[in-house]
Hints:
The protein is mainly alpha-helical. It has four helices and two strands, in the order αααββα.
Amino acid sequence: xxxxxxxxxxxxxxxxxxxxxxxxxxxxxxxxxxxxxxxxxxxxxxxxxxxxxxxxxxxxxxxxxxxxxxxxxxxxxxxxxxxxxxxxxxxxxxxxxxxxxxxxxxxxxxxxxxxxxxxxxxxxxxxxxxxxxxxxxxxxxxxxxx
Length: 146
């Protein structure tokens, strides 16, 4: 019971931390995008060395954020090969979503032999199958103990 409570608390704190980190990253991206837009307008009005330097700095920071996002997509897509300098973000994101779709159960046959494709009904059928499966094991194990 204590172990389950500890795992629950760790999960709760991890989710909270992850959400906060993602929120800060999204805010940072929007702030940099807004600054880039303003700096680009300044560069078009007055192309001084200072404005161009500030634009380049913001552009490098923006690129580094998206390189980090691409690296996360590469890791999540479980790609075995990746060349440094390759910026095929769309490919890795599509590969990640394809692998995620492949790993999920999208259809199942129910007890009557009818194919179920509705996601909620699929989950219900899976739950029902395993609860019946383990209920039978419980009945057998209690009979053996007697």
